[in-house]
Structure formats: C-alpha cells, structure tokens
C-alpha cells in the first residue's frame, strides 16, 4: 500500500515496538523505586508520567523497596497505576543499619555538627542509610536478582517528553553500562574526604582503571582534586552487572569501611558517578540527552528535533529550571567536550 505520508511522518507515527505485561522482554529489566509508605501519592504522579510517556507500551515491571513493611494502602495505590507486574520487598536489616566498625557516637556528633552548619540533610540519620543502601546494596535485594538492568524512579519526578524506544535495549545493544540525563555539581560539604578515599582505593587497585575512562569529567588536574561533577542518580539506567562486578563491590566495601556514609554524608550520586567515570570506558557511559526529565529543583529539556518529535512540554531555554543553562549545569555541558576516546589517564592516578 502507498502511504500518504512522507518518510518523516512515517518515522513519527510508526510504533513498531510494544510488549505486553507478561511477555518476555528483550532485556531483563525493571524500574526500581525506594520508597516510604507515605510516598504513594507522589509516586502515583511519577508512575502516571512514566506510564504515559513510555511504559504503557513497554510494560517493564516495577520493584518497590522499603526499610519497613509496605502497607496495604501503598500497595493498592501504586499497583493500580500500571498493568505491568509489580513487586514489593522489604530491605534486610543488615542493609539498613550500622556496620559493626562504625562508631555510632561519632556519627551522631557529626550529624549534629553538620546540622548546625546547615548542610543539606546533614542532620538526618535515615538519609544516610538511604544513601548507603542506594550506593552499594539495592542490587543485592532478592527481588532484584532476576534483573540485568534497572531504571531508577523517585517520588515527585516528571517525564517531559515521550520515550518512543526501549532505552534498556538501546544500552544492551551498544554495551552501555550507565545512562544518565542530568549532570550537576555536588555540595562539597557533604563529601569532604570522599576523593581522598577514592585515591587510596585506586592506589591499592590500579588494575581497575581502564585506559580511556572519563576521569577528566570529574577531575581537571589529573586526579588530584574532585571537581564535584556527578550524574544525578535519582534518574539512572544501569547495567546491574556493573554494580555487581568485583571491582565495584570492592570499591563500595572500601568506602563503607572508610565510614564517610555516616561520619560525613556521602551521597549515592557521587559514589556511582565516580565509579562510572573511573572504572568504565567513556563509551560505556551514555548521556540520554533526548530524555526530558524533572526532579524537583532541576530539569533536563531536550532541544531541536527530539523536542518536537517527542512531544516535549518543557522549555529548553528556561533559565531557572533547565540545568544546561545554569552554572550548576556546567557538568552536563562539559560532557560533550570529552572525546569518545579520551587520553590515557591511567598513569596519572
Ligand atoms: P533527594 O532526592 O536527595 O532530595 O531525596 P529523596 O527524599 O527524594 O529520597 C531519595 C529516594 O529515597 C526516594 O526514592 C525516597 O522515597 C527514598 N527514601 C528517602 N528516605 C527514605 C527512608 O527513610 N526510607 C525509605 N524506604 N525510602 C527513603
Ligand atoms: Mn528525590
């Protein structure tokens, strides 16, 4: 049959891929959402967005994790937002408590000190357990064992454009192991000694550093100092074999021993990002700059063809919200300056 449309229109309206809820998927993947019982209302907003923009066609399952048992209300209110399978899991105690080597009195004093100094979440104990869990433990949960890739969702986020392809498959086909959409500076008063610990680890394990990594993106002086650039981990799509690898496991265990998750307030975002920048080849890390995404505070808004074709509703030129226009978003912009095969920084560290 002859089409009335030209090729461009066909591209726009073709919807060749669609998987049903129970279907085997081309990638064993899921959404993972760490949540508290009271988060259900804003999670319904997040789920509405990701379902409308993407998942009503792809039907990837959801895994909800909580340090407390989920309430029936939470389960009903979230399950009803999707046709895809949903799983609810409680986090084992040992993944949400103090390791025996942590001095809890010292941790408490540091929380009080950071609270006094108005460090963001500086006084919060639960936020620290959350960051430690998201840094190195979530992928060990029994419900996660059936999956090879994951996409992190949070309460209160928005997807601002249609996603008409399967990002999991996109990654798998190209051997991409870490995907991000917002790059931003870290609050350095949450991680005073993180980079020192990273350097100690790298000295002990130089074999974990590939030749063409993205070190330049996180350090402009060949590894002496950390510039604070990180991928905002409230959105991330990752190959779980990266987190489950010997090198990442050793890295997390080392940082955990250093104590900074409790004596400072190390976030999972800089921890994941530094690992991705150091341990992966640059080409294994992908900026999904066609995915429009908002987490309270900042958004990434695609421009050009992608904006039009994917029915974006955000304003790429917004000065207040769009990260690539902001000083804080220098990290996003400068990713583009990194060559596909960056110079060999291995000897520098
Ligand atoms: P922010 O994005 O850094 O401001 O932190 P959020 O408050 O969004 O927390 C990050 C993620 O961890 C979200 O998915 C929260 O629902 C989840 N979270 C934070 N604190 C807790 C907690 O104490 N228990 C559980 N189960 N989830 C938490
Ligand atoms: Mn959040």
From TrEMBL:
- Specify the superkingdom: Eukaryota
Q: What keywords sit in the KW lines?
A: Transferase
Checking SUPFAM superfamilies in the record gives: Nucleotide-diphospho-sugar transferases (SSF53448)
Record's keyword annotation contains Transferase: yes
Identify its protein family: Belongs to the glycosyltransferase 15 family.
> What is the protein name given in its UniProt record?
Uncharacterized protein
Please give the organism.
Coemansia umbellata
């Amino acid at each position: 049959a002859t089409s009335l449309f030209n090729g461009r229109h066909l591209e726009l309206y073709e919807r060749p891929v669609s998987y049903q809820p129970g279907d085997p998927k081309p990638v064993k993947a899921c959404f993972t959402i760490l949540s508290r019982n009271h988060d259900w209302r804003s999670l319904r907003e997040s789920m509405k967005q990701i379902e409308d923009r993407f998942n009503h066609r792809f039907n990837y399952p959801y895994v909800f994790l909580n340090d407390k048992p989920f309430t029936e209300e939470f389960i009903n209110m979230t399950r009803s937002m999707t046709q895809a399978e949903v799983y609810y899991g409680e986090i084992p105690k040992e993944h949400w408590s103090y390791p025996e080597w942590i001095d809890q009195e010292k941790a408490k004093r540091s929380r009080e000190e950071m609270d006094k100094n108005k460090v963001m979440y500086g006084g919060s104990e639960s936020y620290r357990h959350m960051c430690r869990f998201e840094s190195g433990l979530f992928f060990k949960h029994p419900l996660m064992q059936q999956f090879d890739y994951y996409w992190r969702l949070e309460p209160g986020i928005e997807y601002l454009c249609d996603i008409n392809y399967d990002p999991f498959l996109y990654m798998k086909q190209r051997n991409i192991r870490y995907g991000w959409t917002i790059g931003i500076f870290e609050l350095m008063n949450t991680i005073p000694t993180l980079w020192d610990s990273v350097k100690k680890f790298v000295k002990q394990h130089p074999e974990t550093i590939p030749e063409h990594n993205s070190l330049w993106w996180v350090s402009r002086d060949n590894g002496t100092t950390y510039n604070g650039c990180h991928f905002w981990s409230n959105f991330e799509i990752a190959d779980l074999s990266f987190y489950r690898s010997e090198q990442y496991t050793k890295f997390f265990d080392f940082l955990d021993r250093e104590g900074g998750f409790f004596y400072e307030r190390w976030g999972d975002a800089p921890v994941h990002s530094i690992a991705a920048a150091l341990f992966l080849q640059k080409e294994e890390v992908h900026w999904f700059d066609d995915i429009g995404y908002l987490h309270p505070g900042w958004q990434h808004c695609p421009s050009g063809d992608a904006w039009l074709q994917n029915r974006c509703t955000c304003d790429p030129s917004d000065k207040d919200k769009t990260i690539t226009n902001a000083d804080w978003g220098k990290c996003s912009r400068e990713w583009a300056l990194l060559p596909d095969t960056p110079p060999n920084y291995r000897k520098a560290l």
